[in-house]
User: What shape does this take?
Amino acid sequence: MKRKRTNFLDALRSSCILLILLIQRADAQYIDPGTGSYLLQLLLAGFLSMLFYLKRIRDPLKAFFKSLFSKKDESKHY
Assistant: This one.
């Protein structure tokens, strides 16, 4: 069983090396028409995700800075 597995791995390795050596250069220099819309969707999704994240942390940040810079009289301790 182990010998069959070794033979298979040797054959697979040899096939991969042969395929890599036989690859020819492709001079296809075009962008698929769907690529532009996909990139636009990625940019829009990233922008909207950023806005959602900032909206989500806005209130805790406001509360933090409000408590940091509020004019409390800290000399009175009850």
